[in-house]
Amino acid sequence: MRQAGRYQPEYRALRERYSLLQIALNPALATEVTVRPVEAFGVDAAILFSDIMVPLGPLGIRYEIQEGVGPVVPDPIRTGAQVARLGELDPARDLPMVLEAVERIVARLHGVPLIGFAGAPFTLASYLVEGQPTRQYVATKRLMWSDPATWGALMDVLAETAVRYLTAQIRAGAQAVQLFDSWAGALSPADYRQYVLPATRRIFAGLAELGVPRIYFGVGTGSLLELMQATGADVVGVDWRTPLPEARRRLGPGTALQGNLDPVALLAPWPVLAAAADRILTAMRGDYAFVFNLGHGVLPETDPEQVRRLVAYVHDRGGAA
Asked: Looking at the predicted structure, is the pLDDT value of residue 2 above 70?
């Protein structure tokens, strides 16, 4: 969950010289940033340093990552004609630098698994339709409800893009993949079922024969857990708002769970952080389809020593972080 980022002094030093995308699209820099959390903190897996917008450029979408804002799309997609003009992703042709980074990272990790990732169709669509991050998703929902044909076509393009991108990452060496649907919690279960589930299910089905764990994560998705499971994901990420025992009761034993420490707890005094971790570890003791993780990304204000101490603490308790 955003292992590498602004909380690390080494990363901040790189960002003084390079943009986020310059790092993500440079195999040597992406490798260095990806492996540092493993080497510094001893986490049990690395996650590819990149951005969910990266595979959209080859489709003909202009975007930029604005500091303090996020993805910004100057020409938002609002019509069927715009969707029809979108291209197709060929990862080997369009993003060879990302695949080279995956290969380099795997070689550098010496057996520690690498998790590849992509953005889920709804979350990507929200940026493409709104043109920038939002809290209300007015334009997104308006398109979804008023022009379901255009919405469906856009979701199809984004689902196919994710399948191709994640397949290429797996073939380059990624041992697991995670689909980030960060903003799916903005939807009601009924809307998710009708407008999002089919495309997301298509992604996990398209990866099924590749034999790697497939993780699905969203923020504020407590009302959607059963639908997230219905996508076919092997692992469902749970944020801190939903107690893990409740998630296990609702999803049963067949789906692995990942989560769900509140990232803000890393800013608390150590006794408070340790107690928060203990509550999760105690609640999930004996559940062997569970991976301890944060409920979202590491915050920029986090002291790296807190991350190191937490990972060691979880390992000492006999878990995986």
From this structure: no
Averaged pLDDT, 228-232: 98
**219 neighbors 262 (Cβ within 8 angstroms):** no
| Assessment of whether the complete model's pTM goes beyond 0.90 | yes
Among left, alpha and beta (phi > 0; psi -120 to 50; other), residue 259 is: left
Which residues pair with residue 259 across a beta bridge? 238, 292
Does residue 260 have a cis peptide bond before it, meaning omega lies within 30 degrees of 0? yes
Residues 6 or more apart in contact with residue 160 via CB below 8 angstroms: 88, 89, 202
Residue 158 has which token pair? 């984004």
Cα 48 from Cα 46, distance rounded (Å) = 7
d(CA 300, CA 97): 27
Ordered by where they begin, the domains of the chain are: 9-233 (3.20.20.210)
Half-sphere exposure of 235 (CA within 13 A, CB side): 23
Where in the sequence numbering do the catalytic residues fall? 2, 6, 15, 51, 127
- Map residue 65 onto helix, strand or coil: strand
Question: 6, exposed or middle or buried, with CB in 10 Å at 0-12, 13-18, 19+?
Answer: middle
